[in-house]
């Protein structure tokens, strides 16, 4: 992976539509990284689930995963094709970003992103509306992710939610930023549990981490070099998110944040991973260390780097790298999905 030698490079120019959205997000944060919640809530527009297919043939429906904890998910399914006997589709369980603190499965950027993933990968996408910090700190988001997999393993998806056949032996967990962190920890937990008590139907075929949010007490070269240059994330914001999510009094060297180095465990059955890195993402050094840790454990990892990508680039379809990412995700899913008859 490329190093952090970016001092001589300037951030790439961004379309005005992207700059406006990033500026609005910036206004919702104070200089110390904390969130102006009222301002953010005014800008966090929500999309309703729609059983009627959109222009690209994608429909959506909300499903209750666990009523006792208010856990829900939004399910996106492509238009049925092939009639009877059509091949079952892979399932992508998605965790949105937002520092464990912001956004939801219904937030418009994530509703739109999951529709794109559904359409381009031709997969059923289950976007988990996990509980947010600081009201629900570690390990609530991880618990919710595992609960979503257990729900799928026990119930699959009813026809009124996903009117296409699904292949639970080709299930992938995916997420961006904090959602990428959740995807890792959920995959690790599921792989450990599955070794002791095999699931009924669900096989975790892979994990997709888009600019995952990892960290530690140490300041990496990328964090130092890109803190002021970054238009979408700052060290102050990442520090604030960790304070909101980790147990009170914990440092950033907590196992939820620091997933590399001595003592880090990776389950024997941990699935193949796709890790996406951006050249102008101040988290990229932590992501490089994560990749190194997986490889040291003998786990298959594919790294996709976009040298000019800022943190969160995937959420902006007007950026060319966002479309390229979907192509890479499709290649990864096609490579690792189950090939046996279901």
Give the structural class.
alpha/beta
Distance between the termini: 38 Å
For this structure, the quaternary state is: single chain
What is the number of helices?
9
Structure keywords:
9 helices; eight-stranded mixed β-sheet; 34% helix; globular; 19% strand; 342 residues; alpha/beta; single chain
Helix-strand layout with pairing:
Layout: H1 16-27, H2 37-43, E1 59-66, E2 71-77, E3 89-95, H3 108-121, E4 124-129, H4 140-155, E5 166-176, H5 178-196, E6 204-210, H6 221-226, H7 235-245, E7 273-280, H8 284-296, E8 301-310, H9 320-336
Parallel strand pairs: 3-4, 3-5, 5-6, 6-7, 7-8
Antiparallel strand pairs: 1-2, 2-4
Structure report:
- This protein is of the alpha/beta class.
- It contains 9 helices and 8 strands.
- The longest helix has 19 residues, at 178-196.
- It has helices spanning 16-27, 37-43, 108-121, 140-155, 178-196, 221-226, 235-245, 284-296, 320-336; strands at 59-66, 71-77, 89-95, 124-129, 166-176, 204-210, 273-280, 301-310.
- α3 (108-121) packs across α9 and α4 crosses α5 (178-196).
Q: What is this structure, in a nutshell?
A:
The protein is α/β, with parallel strands linked by helices. 34% of the residues lie in helices and 19% in strands. It has an 8-stranded mixed β-sheet with strand order 1-2-4-3-5-6-7-8, with helices on both faces.
């Amino acid at each position: 992976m490329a190093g952090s030698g970016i001092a001589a490079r300037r951030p790439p120019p961004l379309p005005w539509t992207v700059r406006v959205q990033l500026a609005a997000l910036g206004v919702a944060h104070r200089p110390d990284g904390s969130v102006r919640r009222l301002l953010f809530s005014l800008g966090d527009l929500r999309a309703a689930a729609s059983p009627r297919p959109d222009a690209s043939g994608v429909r959506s429906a909300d499903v209750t995963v666990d009523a006792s904890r208010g856990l829900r998910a939004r399910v996106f399914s492509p238009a049925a094709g092939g009639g009877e006997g059509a091949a079952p589709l892979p399932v992508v369980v998605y965790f949105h970003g937002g520092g464990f603190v912001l956004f939801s499965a219904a937030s418009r950027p994530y509703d739109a992103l999951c529709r794109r993933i559904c359409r381009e990968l031709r997969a059923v996408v289950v976007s988990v509306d996990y509980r947010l910090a600081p009201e629900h700190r570690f390990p609530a988001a991880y618990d919710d992710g595992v609960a979503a997999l257990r729900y799928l393993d026990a119930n699959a998806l009813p026809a009124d939610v996903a009117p296409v056949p699904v292949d639970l032996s080709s299930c992938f967990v995916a997420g961006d930023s904090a959602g990428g962190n959740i995807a890792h920890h959920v995959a690790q937990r599921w792989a450990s549990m599955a070794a002791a008590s095999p699931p009924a139907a669900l096989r975790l075929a892979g994990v997709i981490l888009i600019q995952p949010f990892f960290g530690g007490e140490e300041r990496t070269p990328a964090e130092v070099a890109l803190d002021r240059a970054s238009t979408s994330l700052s060290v102050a914001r990442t520090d604030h998110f960790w304070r909101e999510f980790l147990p009170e009094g914990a440092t950033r060297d907590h196992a939820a944040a620091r997933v590399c180095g001595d003592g880090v465990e990776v389950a024997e059955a941990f699935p193949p991973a796709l890790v996406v890195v951006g050249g102008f993402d101040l988290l990229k050094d932590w992501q490089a260390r994560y990749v190194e840790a997986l490889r040291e454990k003998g786990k298959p990892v594919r790294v996709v780097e976009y040298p000019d990508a800022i943190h969160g680039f995937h959420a902006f379809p007007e950026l060319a790298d966002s479309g390229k990412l979907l192509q890479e995700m499709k290649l990864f899913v096609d490579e690792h999905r189950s090939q046996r008859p279901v």
